[in-house]
Amino acid sequence: AQSVTQPDIHITVSEGASLELRCNYSYGATPYLFWYVQSPGQGLQLLLKYFSGDTLVQGIKGFEAEFKRSQSSFNLRKPSVHWSDAAEYFCAVGARNAGNMLTFGGGTRLMVKP
Amino acid sequence: EPEVTQTPSHQVTQMGQEVILRCVPISNHLYFYWYRQILGQKVEFLVSFYNNEISEKSEIFDDQFSVERPDGSNFTLKIRSTKLEDSAMYFCASTWTGTDTQYFGPGTRLTVL
């Protein structure tokens, strides 16, 4: 069964500082990997995804993530955080079969200090 | 840009009542999903639906739950007899091929009293 671990429940960074959110997954083959962001009271917005090819993927709002097969990781990064990035971030893994379900990590709540 | 919509945004119901949560997936999508998120917990898969039948369902999706695509645009989740523990945010998602990105709606917050 697939699973996702986000080791950091809360992270606080200063505005302008760099950010890395960790995600580790468990899946028998190469998975589909996603990062979604959820602002308070809002739905899930896709930040970026990895399906195949280049292991460094670019997303919206200046985010990027790197797929590292050897470490079963898909960490999310941003070089300079903005106050509007404060939200909850979810990593998810999907199986490579039609109709696949997504398995989500527990989320990381990001707070941004002025 | 096309988006998934859900109604209502918030539903309050009494324990034991039936509720129907509605979703309008993106128009050319063929695969549909329901997920839920209990307050403070992770997003959990409930069910996937394709070609008018359930593709996969989780252990959460018991006999109290059912899904339907009553027409060409709506996708519904019915809970027959709600329990307190059904209180959660329910998200609908859709995708075209079933192996690509799932696009999520804004959610329906269900409160069971």
Descriptive report:
The complex is a heterodimer of chains A (114) and B (113). In chain A, 0% of the residues lie in helices and 51% in strands. Chain A has strands at 3-5, 10-14, 19-21, 24-26, 32-38, 45-50, 56-58, 64-68, 73-78, 87-94, 102-104, 108-113. In chain A, the strands form 3 sheets. In chain A, strands 2, 5, 6, 10, 11 and 12 form a 6-stranded mixed sheet that branches. A 4-stranded antiparallel sheet of chain A has the order 3-9-8-7, with no helix packed on it. Chain A has a two-stranded antiparallel ribbon with strand order 1-4. In chain A, a hairpin with a 5-residue loop joins strand 7 (56-58) and strand 8 (64-68). Chain B has strands at 5-7, 10-13, 19-24, 31-37, 43-50, 53-57, 65-68, 75-79, 88-95, 103-104, 108-112. The N and C termini of chain B lie far apart (37 Å).
Topology:
The complex is a heterodimer of chains A (114) and B (113).
Chain A: E1 3-5, E2 10-14, E3 19-21, E4 24-26, E5 32-38, E6 45-50, E7 56-58, E8 64-68, E9 73-78, E10 87-94, E11 102-104, E12 108-113
Chain B: E1 5-7, E2 10-13, E3 19-24, E4 31-37, E5 43-50, E6 53-57, E7 65-68, E8 75-79, E9 88-95, E10 103-104, E11 108-112
Parallel strand pairs in B: 2-11
Antiparallel strand pairs in B: 1-3, 3-8, 4-5, 4-9, 5-6, 7-8, 9-10, 9-11
Give a brief description.
With 114 residues, chain A is mainly beta. Chain A contains no helices and 12 strands. In chain A, strands 2, 5, 6, 10, 11 and 12 form a 6-stranded mixed beta sheet that branches. In chain A, strands 3-9-8-7 form a 4-stranded antiparallel beta sheet, with no helix packed on it. Chain A has a two-stranded antiparallel ribbon with strand order 1-4.
